[in-house]
Amino acid sequence: xxxxxxxxxxxxxxxxxxxxxxxxxxxxxxxxxxxxxxxxxxxxxxxxxxxxxxxxxxxxxxxxxxxxxxxxxxxxxxxxxxxxxxxxxxxxxxxxxxxxxxxxxxxxxxxxxxxxxxxxxxxxxxxxxxxxxxxxxxxxxxxxxxxxxxxxxxxxxxxxxxxxxxxxxxxxxxxxxxxxxxxxxxxxxxxxxxxxxxxxxxxxxxxxxxxxxxxxxxxxxxxxxxxxxxxxxxxxxxxxxxxxxxxxxxxxxxxxxxxxxxxxxxxxxxxxxxxxxxxxxxxxxxxxxxxxxxxxxxxxxxxxxxxxxxxxxxxxxxxxxxxxxxxxxxxxxxxxxxxxxxxxxxxxxxxxxxxxxxxxxxxxxxxxxxxxxxxxxxxxxxxxxxxxxxxxxxxxxxxxxxxxxxxxxxxxxx
Length: 414
Ligand SMILES: Cc1cc2nc3c(=O)[nH]c(=O)nc-3n(C[C@H](O)[C@H](O)[C@H](O)COP(=O)(O)OP(=O)(O)OC[C@H]3O[C@@H](n4cnc5c(N)ncnc54)[C@H](O)[C@@H]3O)c2cc1C
Known about the structure:
Order of helices and strands: HHHHHEEEEEEEEHHHHHHHHH
CATH architecture of the largest domain: Beta Barrel
Number of helices: 14
Structural class: alpha+beta
Number of domains: 3
Mean pLDDT: 91
Helix content: 40-55%
CATH superfamily of the largest domain: Butyryl-CoA Dehydrogenase, subunit A, domain 2
Shape: globular
CATH class of the largest domain: Mainly Beta
Bound molecules: flavin-adenine dinucleotide
CATH topology of the largest domain: Butyryl-CoA Dehydrogenase, subunit A, domain 2
């Protein structure tokens, strides 16, 4: 069926459906329920799971067309959606996919721990089965959005006697319970989007597992691969929506999301501000500044082409290649070069924060400089991307890990 589908035919189908079904008097949940029951929420997903089995490119085409009709087009699927879809089991898909797509349940990612970030498989948060529930103890950290999430994607050790990667299970943690304490962290850029999460006898129903018990590592890799390729999908309607409850509720949801992600454009370096900044600083004619800006804009263009290449590979249904890691490294590179340009233009004033009347770009410059380092860390550091490329794309020998095949209880104490 897919071979006959074209962007134009998909656009025409969804347009006709939206015209017949969009009613601005609906609530947001009613509208999204209608979308997912009709298969238009994530049309690339299988029909059994709220999609239409269309090629990957259809998601973008459909979202734009819904927006062009003046309807709410945002659908939250985040990182948990594709992971659960891919890894199952069906009971987990049945319980979680629908309220995720309607936005009734908000998710966060509870992977990193104080001594398990790049080496995520070295995690020590432990889950023990007690009757019909898992009991969890440990600590997570750097958990974006955990302060307003209902559910967490959580990886924990369920077998200390298996080798490092084999005793891990991927759970869905209900966040609102006495055993879960979320403490916001204050960042050096003045924002507070991360949290520490302390688990003290926290409880998870026995079957709230993604993939299978003790096989959570492959599910975790699926989430991380998705994060590398797409980043965290921030679903916000950026077009006028017909006024009504659905539009108001979508705007309120977007406001919550943007509170967390408002510094992400600064994290990417704000290359778009380089030329206006050079002009306002009176340095647009400076030969060194011009050279640095030209370098920035060419790096950015190449990075966009890499992203386009990845996108067209996906649209052709090809398996993920090295573009995820290459693209992520390219974005870090662009961000650092942008910070270099901005700090050359701002000089020592770049350090002044928003409240100071002399702060360049009303303090945005300081925020850029303090946010850019996060670009090379989130979703796997630059060094880890290079390791992935070395091993997976270039076929270099794997990093030595002498305790890899030992029971983790033993390997950890070596
Ligand atoms: C903006 C942002 C959002 C985040 N959101 C979340 C979230 O929602 N949920 C979550 O669980 N986590 C989140 N994180 C955490 C993130 O996944 C970790 O910070 C990241 O994996 C790195 O781990 P770490 O901070 O422990 O650094 P470490 O792993 O301690 O690394 C320290 C340094 O050592 C280097 N290094 C480590 N191992 C190697 C190696 N084998 N080879 C070469 N160099 C190495 C690293 O590259 C780095 O430079 C977020 C981080 C950021 C910045």
